[in-house]
Amino acid sequence: MKKGIRGRVIFILLTVFASILFFLPSTPVYSKLPSWWGKVFPSKGITLGLDLQGGMHLVLEVQGEKAVDNTVERTVAALKGALESKNLALQSIRREGRDILLSFAPENKEAVSKLVEEQYPNFMTKQSGPGEMVLTLRDAEVKRILESSTSQALETIRNRIDQFGVAEPLIQRQGANQILVQLPGVKEPDRAIALIGRTALLEFKLVDDESPIARQLPSQIEADQEAVILQEYQGKIPPDDQILFERDMNKETNKVTKRPFVVKRQAALAGDLLSDARVSMGQFNEPYVAITFDPVGAKLFEKVTEENRRHRLAIVLDNTVYSAPVIQEKIAGGRAQISGSFTVQQANDLAIVLRAGSLPAPVTIIQNVTVGPSLGQDSIENGLKAGVIGTLLVVVFMIFYYRFSGLVADFTLVLNVVLLIGALAAMNATLTLPGIAGIILTVGMAVDSNVLIFERIREELRAGKPVRLAVNAGYDKAFLTIVDSHVTTLITAFVLFMFGTGPIKGFAVTLSLGVIINLFTSLVGTKVVYDVMISRRKMERLSI
Fold it and tell me: How far, in Å, CA of 45 to CA of 52, rounded?
C-alpha cells in the first residue's frame, strides 16, 4: 500500500475511533465502565432535547411598566431623604403614575430645583409653581428601563435555573419583552414555574403598631378574605402605611389563615443588599432561611435595628409577611433569618430566588407546554424506525443498482453516520426530533454524492478508459458539482441557524455537520477504498 493511501486509511480509522469515544457517554455501556474512564476520556455525550426526553416549554412576558413604576417609587423615597438632609422641608411628596408631585415652602424653590437637576437628571420638570413642582421620568429613561428589565429578568431566571439543577436548559430573549425557557427532563413543572416566576422582592418594613387601624384589625382572617379587609379599610389607612398579611398554617389541621399587619409603606431595608441566603435548621428541627447582608446592607441593618428597639420589623417577600419579630437590641454583623411554615424544599427554593436576586418586574406566563417523557420516547422510537427503514432501503437500492460499487457507497454511508454522531457528541449538542430528521437527510445527501461520482466513472468506462483512470477522472469531474451543491446547502443551514428558534437551530446544526462530513466521506472515503483495491492488484473491470 502506498504511503499516501496508508495515511488516509489511518486518518479515517482515527476519526472513527474518536467518534466512538465521544459517543460512548450517550450509551448504556458508559455506566458499566470503570470510574477512571470519565477522567481520561470524554464524559459528556449527546443531550436529548425537550421533544425527546420531555420537559417544559415556557414563554414569559416581562411586565416592564411595573419596573418603571418601581423606579419612580424608589425615587420618591430617595428624593424625600435627600431634601430632608438639606433641611428643605417638604409639605408633601407623592407619586402619580410616572410623575412625582412636590409641595414645599416657596422660598425653597430654587434650592429644590438645583438639587433635582444635579442628583436626578433622569427626571424633567413637567410643571412648576411658587411652592410646588411636578417631575416626570424622561422618555429616554423609560425606554432604557423597559429594555433593561427584560435583560435583567433573563439573567435572573438563568441564575435561578442554574441553581435549580436543570441540565442543558434553553433560555433566550424572544421579541422586545418575552423570554423563551425550555427545561428538558423537568419532573416537577409546578415547582419550576413557581421558582422562575417569583418576583422575590425582599423588604424589611417597620410594623406600625401605634396606628389606630392596627388596633381595629382582626387578629386572624380566613385565607380568602384579604380583599374584603383591604376594601373595608380603603381610604382609612394613612398614605405612609399599608396592610399586608402573614400566612399561617395549622400543622394539625393544615388549615391556612391570614394575619393582617399595618406596616410602613417605605421599606427600611431592601433585599438587593443580600450577599447570601442558606437553609438552616432551627431548635425544633424546623427549616428557616439564614440571610447575610453585604457590608453596606450590614451597616444599614445595624442602624435600623439600633434606632427601632422594641418595635417589630416585618420581613416581607413579594408583599407577604413571613415573620415580624420584635427588635430587642441592635443587631450587628449583618445576619438575620426568615422563618415560617416551611418545608425543606420550600426553604431551598426561597434561598435560591434570594441568592439569584429579585426580578426587576413581574413576569407572566403566556405559553406553557409540558411534554411528557412517554411522548418523547415515542418520538425517539419513531425517529429511529424511520432512520433505519430509510437507510436499509437506500443500502438495498445502491447494491442492486451499482453492484460492488454500491457496497462501497454503503460503507461511506455508515461512516458518514458514525462521524456525524461522534461530532454531535463532541460538541455536547442537544439532539431534537428535527435533528434526527437532519441526520436522515444527510443519509440521502451522502448517496446523492456517490451517485454523481459513479455516473461519471461509468461514462469514463464506456469511453474505454482503464479502471484506474476512469475512477480518477470520475472523482475529478464530479468534484466541483458536489462542492457546489454542498456549499448551497450550507448557506441554507446557516440562514436557518441565524434566524430559527430552538428546534430549527438543532436541525441546522445537524444538517451543517452532515454536509461537511459528507464532503469528506464521499470524496475521500470511497476514493480510499478504490485506491486500496487498485494498488493491491491490477483491475481490468469494475463492478458498477
Answer: 15
Alpha-carbon radius of gyration of the chain: 34
- Asked if 211 contacts 95 with a C-beta cutoff of 8 angstroms, the reply is no
271-300: pLDDT as tens digits = 777 778 888 887 777 888 888 888 888 888
Helix (H, G, I), strand (E, B) or coil at 336: strand
What DSSP state is assigned to residue 326?
B
For residues 319 and 247, is the Cβ–Cβ distance under 8 A?
A: no
Domains of the chain: 3-17+45-53+374-536 (1.20.1640.10), 65-141 (3.30.1360.40), 200-341 (3.30.1360.200)
Within 54-138, residue ranges assigned H as helices are 64-85, 109-119
Say what the pLDDT of residue 501 is. 65
Instruction: Give 472-488 pLDDT, tens digit per residue.
Output: 888 888 888 888 888 88
Closest CA to 471 of 483, 459, 484: 459
Bridge partners of residue 401, in order along the sequence: none
Percent of the chain with pLDDT over 90: 1
- What's the pLDDT tens digit per position in 64-102? 888 888 788 878 877 887 887 778 777 888 888 888 888
Mean pLDDT of the chain: 82
- Structural contact between residues 516 and 420, judged by C-beta atoms closer than 8 angstroms: no
The predicted model scores a pTM of: 0.60
DSSP 429: P
Q: Are 247 and 339 in contact (CB under 8 A)?
A: no
Cell of 89: 422641608
- Answer yes or no: are the C-beta atoms of 366 and 59 closer than 8 Å: yes
What phi and psi, each to the nearest 5 degrees, are found at residue 469?
-70, -35
Cite the DSSP H helix spans in 427-466: 433-462
Return the number of other C-beta atoms located less than 10 Å from residue 302's C-beta: 16
Q: What is the pLDDT of residues 176-210, one digit of tens each?
A: 888 888 888 777 778 788 878 777 777 889 999 88
Q: Please name the helix (run of DSSP H) or strand (run of DSSP E) that holds residue 65, with its range, or none.
A: helix 64-85
Neighbours of 347 (CB within 10 A): 23
Residue 374 neighbours by CB distance under 10 Å: 9
Decide: 61 and 363 in contact? Cβ < 8 Å.
yes
CA dist 509 and 145 (Å) reads 35
What are the grid coordinates assigned to 78, written together? 430617595
Residue 210: exposed, middle, or buried by beta-carbon count in 10 A (0-12, 13-18, 19+)?
A: exposed
Contact 203, 269 (CB under 8 A): yes
Residue 376 confidence (pLDDT): 57
- Which amino acid makes up residue 110? E
Burial environment of residue 163 by CB neighbours within 10 A (0 to 12, 13 to 18, 19 or more): middle
Residue 536 CB contacts under 8 Å (≥ 6 apart), including other chains: 1
